[in-house]
Amino acid sequence: MKYDDIDRKIIEELIVDGRLSYVELAEKVGFSRVAVKDRIKNLKDTGVIENFTVTINSEKFGKNVSAFFEVDVEPKQLQKVAQNLADNPNVASVYQMTGPSTLHMHVLVEDFKMLEVFINNELYAVEGITRVESSILLKRFKSRIGYKL
């Protein structure tokens, strides 16, 4: 499927404010409300737009520590470990990375004590993990939300 500048403009406007109405989007891109609605439906149907959601400021929601983990896993356990981690409510995202069965994981917890509890009681308890390396986020400058086409 080929996408044009109008599709890109619609997506850019939705990135800024996903609550814009079809009428508001139509005014911004210079098309009719019906044309914008059809284009958004097409973008959803083809998988360009996966879903509409809200972005939460984790700190304002009580999750003050953001940590990233590189988790090496026994190859035959990769899917099971990835699903186990993805099901954990403290885990914001899990990605399979290149390398020897490596998962990249983002974790949000209330404080450093809860991070310790997560690491010792929830992460190290997962069978199949062979190595864990972590980094604590100090400051966010940009996230995927700011992605421009």
UniProtKB/TrEMBL annotation:
Keywords tagged on the record: DNA-binding, Transcription, Transcription regulation
Ranges where the HTH asnC-type domain occurs: 3-64
UniProt keyword DNA-binding, yes or no: yes
InterPro entries: ArsR-like_HTH, AsnC-type_HTH_dom, Dimeric_a/b-barrel, Tscrpt_reg_AsnC-like, Tscrpt_reg_AsnC/Lrp_C, WH-like_DNA-bd_sf, WH_DNA-bd_sf
Gene3D superfamilies cross-referenced by the UniProt entry: 3.30.70.920, Winged helix-like DNA-binding domain superfamily/Winged helix DNA-binding domain (1.10.10.10)
Gene Ontology cellular component terms for the protein in this record: cytosol
An example molecular function term from Gene Ontology annotations: sequence-specific DNA binding
CDD domains assigned to the protein according to its UniProt record, in alphabetical order: HTH_ARSR
A Pfam family the protein falls into: HTH_AsnC-type
Coiled coil: none
Domain of life: Bacteria
PANTHER family referenced in this protein's UniProt entry, alphabetically: LEUCINE-RESPONSIVE REGULATORY PROTEIN, TRANSCRIPTIONAL REGULATOR AZLB
Name of the featured protein: Transcriptional regulator, AsnC family
Lineage: Bacteria, Bacillati, Bacillota, Bacilli, Bacillales
